[in-house]
Amino acid sequence: MSxxxxxxxxxxxxxxxxxxxxxxxxxxxxxxxxxxSKNNFIEHLIDLGANVVQGGRFMHIGGxxxxxxxxxxxxxxxxxxxxxxAILTIxxxxxxxxxxxxxxxxxxxxIRSPVHNFPKLYRQFKTTRTQDYGPQGWAQALQTxxxxxxxxxxxxxxx
Length: 159
Known about the structure:
Elements lengths: L2 H8 L3 H7 L5 E4 L5 H13 L3 E4 L4 E4 L4 H15 L8 E4 L5 H6 L2 E6 L14 E7 H20 L6
Parallel strand pairs: 4-5, 5-6
Antiparallel strand pairs: 1-3, 2-3
Helix pairs in contact: 1-2
Pfam families: Hydrolase_3
Protein name: Mannosyl-3-phosphoglycerate phosphatase
Protein backbone atom coordinates (compact mmCIF):
# COMPACT_ATOMS: atom_id res chain seq x y z
CA MET A 1 0.00 0.00 0.00
CA SER A 2 1.40 3.40 -0.91
CA UNK A 3 1.81 6.18 1.63
CA UNK A 4 -0.83 8.16 -0.29
CA UNK A 5 -3.31 5.29 0.00
CA UNK A 6 -2.54 5.04 3.71
CA UNK A 7 -3.32 8.75 4.19
CA UNK A 8 -6.71 8.26 2.56
CA UNK A 9 -7.60 5.29 4.79
CA UNK A 10 -6.27 6.66 8.08
CA UNK A 11 -6.34 10.44 7.84
CA UNK A 12 -2.60 10.58 8.62
CA UNK A 13 -0.47 13.24 6.96
CA UNK A 14 1.86 12.01 4.22
CA UNK A 15 4.88 12.31 6.54
CA UNK A 16 3.05 10.37 9.29
CA UNK A 17 2.02 7.67 6.81
CA UNK A 18 5.63 7.26 5.66
CA UNK A 19 6.78 6.89 9.28
CA UNK A 20 3.99 4.38 9.95
CA UNK A 21 5.27 2.26 7.06
CA UNK A 22 8.70 1.93 8.69
CA UNK A 23 7.67 -1.06 10.81
CA UNK A 24 10.18 -3.67 11.93
CA UNK A 25 8.24 -6.20 14.00
CA UNK A 26 4.77 -6.59 12.56
CA UNK A 27 2.63 -5.85 9.56
CA UNK A 28 -0.79 -4.24 9.41
CA UNK A 29 -3.02 -5.38 6.57
CA UNK A 30 -6.40 -4.18 5.38
CA UNK A 31 -8.59 -7.19 4.62
CA UNK A 32 -10.66 -6.72 1.46
CA UNK A 33 -12.16 -10.21 1.17
CA UNK A 34 -15.11 -11.92 2.83
CA UNK A 35 -15.21 -13.08 6.47
CA UNK A 36 -14.90 -16.80 5.66
CA SER A 37 -11.71 -16.23 3.66
CA LYS A 38 -10.41 -13.89 6.36
CA ASN A 39 -10.95 -16.53 9.07
CA ASN A 40 -9.22 -19.18 6.93
CA PHE A 41 -6.31 -16.80 6.36
CA ILE A 42 -6.02 -16.10 10.10
CA GLU A 43 -6.10 -19.82 10.94
CA HIS A 44 -3.33 -20.47 8.42
CA LEU A 45 -1.18 -17.67 9.88
CA ILE A 46 -1.69 -19.02 13.40
CA ASP A 47 -0.71 -22.50 12.19
CA LEU A 48 2.51 -20.92 10.90
CA GLY A 49 3.19 -19.42 14.34
CA ALA A 50 1.98 -15.86 13.81
CA ASN A 51 -0.09 -13.78 16.17
CA VAL A 52 -3.05 -12.04 14.51
CA VAL A 53 -4.98 -9.23 16.17
CA GLN A 54 -7.82 -7.19 14.71
CA GLY A 55 -7.31 -3.48 15.27
CA GLY A 56 -9.63 -0.59 14.58
CA ARG A 57 -8.86 -0.39 10.86
CA PHE A 58 -6.25 -3.04 10.21
CA MET A 59 -5.46 -6.62 11.07
CA HIS A 60 -2.00 -6.81 12.70
CA ILE A 61 0.26 -9.77 12.01
CA GLY A 62 3.37 -10.37 14.07
CA GLY A 63 4.95 -12.42 16.79
CA UNK A 64 3.62 -12.99 20.29
CA UNK A 65 4.06 -9.52 21.69
CA UNK A 66 1.29 -7.06 22.40
CA UNK A 67 0.64 -3.59 23.75
CA UNK A 68 0.00 -4.99 27.22
CA UNK A 69 3.47 -6.53 27.41
CA UNK A 70 4.94 -3.26 26.14
CA UNK A 71 3.06 -1.25 28.80
CA UNK A 72 4.22 -3.58 31.58
CA UNK A 73 7.83 -3.33 30.38
CA UNK A 74 7.68 0.47 30.10
CA UNK A 75 6.07 0.82 33.53
CA UNK A 76 8.83 -1.30 35.08
CA UNK A 77 11.47 0.88 33.41
CA UNK A 78 9.93 4.00 34.95
CA UNK A 79 9.59 2.36 38.37
CA UNK A 80 13.22 1.25 38.36
CA UNK A 81 14.80 4.33 36.79
CA UNK A 82 12.86 6.84 38.87
CA UNK A 83 12.80 4.68 42.01
CA UNK A 84 9.06 5.18 42.23
CA UNK A 85 6.85 2.12 42.74
CA ALA A 86 3.72 4.31 42.63
CA ILE A 87 3.74 4.97 38.87
CA LEU A 88 0.11 5.09 37.67
CA THR A 89 -0.67 3.85 34.16
CA ILE A 90 -3.57 5.00 32.01
CA UNK A 91 -4.25 3.23 28.73
CA UNK A 92 -6.60 4.48 26.03
CA UNK A 93 -7.69 2.37 23.07
CA UNK A 94 -10.47 1.65 20.63
CA UNK A 95 -9.56 -1.67 19.01
CA UNK A 96 -9.22 -5.31 19.98
CA UNK A 97 -5.45 -4.94 19.60
CA UNK A 98 -5.62 -2.46 22.52
CA UNK A 99 -7.28 -4.95 24.90
CA UNK A 100 -4.06 -6.37 26.42
CA UNK A 101 -2.84 -2.83 27.11
CA UNK A 102 -6.18 -1.81 28.63
CA UNK A 103 -6.13 -4.94 30.81
CA UNK A 104 -2.57 -4.19 32.00
CA UNK A 105 -3.16 -0.53 32.89
CA UNK A 106 -4.20 0.82 36.27
CA UNK A 107 -6.95 2.81 34.52
CA UNK A 108 -8.44 1.67 31.22
CA UNK A 109 -10.26 4.03 28.86
CA UNK A 110 -12.14 2.59 25.93
CA ILE A 111 -12.51 5.13 23.14
CA ARG A 112 -15.72 4.88 21.12
CA SER A 113 -15.13 3.83 17.51
CA PRO A 114 -17.28 4.76 14.52
CA VAL A 115 -16.62 1.36 12.91
CA HIS A 116 -16.94 -1.27 15.66
CA ASN A 117 -18.10 -1.94 19.21
CA PHE A 118 -15.93 -1.38 22.27
CA PRO A 119 -13.27 -4.10 22.59
CA LYS A 120 -14.09 -6.85 25.07
CA LEU A 121 -12.39 -6.51 28.45
CA TYR A 122 -12.41 -8.95 31.34
CA ARG A 123 -11.60 -6.38 33.99
CA GLN A 124 -14.49 -4.77 35.83
CA PHE A 125 -12.67 -2.06 37.76
CA LYS A 126 -11.30 1.37 36.85
CA THR A 127 -12.63 1.16 33.32
CA THR A 128 -14.43 3.95 31.52
CA ARG A 129 -15.89 4.45 28.05
CA THR A 130 -16.05 7.68 26.10
CA GLN A 131 -19.06 9.09 24.34
CA ASP A 132 -16.95 10.84 21.69
CA TYR A 133 -14.97 9.14 18.93
CA GLY A 134 -11.25 9.21 18.21
CA PRO A 135 -9.19 12.23 19.28
CA GLN A 136 -12.22 13.95 20.83
CA GLY A 137 -12.90 10.88 22.97
CA TRP A 138 -9.24 10.69 23.93
CA ALA A 139 -9.20 14.36 24.98
CA GLN A 140 -12.54 14.01 26.82
CA ALA A 141 -11.26 11.05 28.82
CA LEU A 142 -7.95 12.61 29.81
CA GLN A 143 -9.54 15.93 30.77
CA THR A 144 -12.02 14.09 33.00
CA UNK A 145 -9.31 11.91 34.59
CA UNK A 146 -6.98 14.84 35.19
CA UNK A 147 -9.78 16.95 36.69
CA UNK A 148 -10.66 14.10 39.07
CA UNK A 149 -6.98 13.71 40.01
CA UNK A 150 -6.63 17.43 40.71
CA UNK A 151 -9.77 17.43 42.85
CA UNK A 152 -8.73 14.37 44.83
CA UNK A 153 -5.18 15.60 45.44
CA UNK A 154 -6.05 19.18 46.41
CA UNK A 155 -6.42 20.05 50.05
CA UNK A 156 -9.34 22.20 51.09
CA UNK A 157 -8.76 24.18 54.25
CA UNK A 158 -11.54 25.80 56.21
CA UNK A 159 -10.95 29.17 57.79
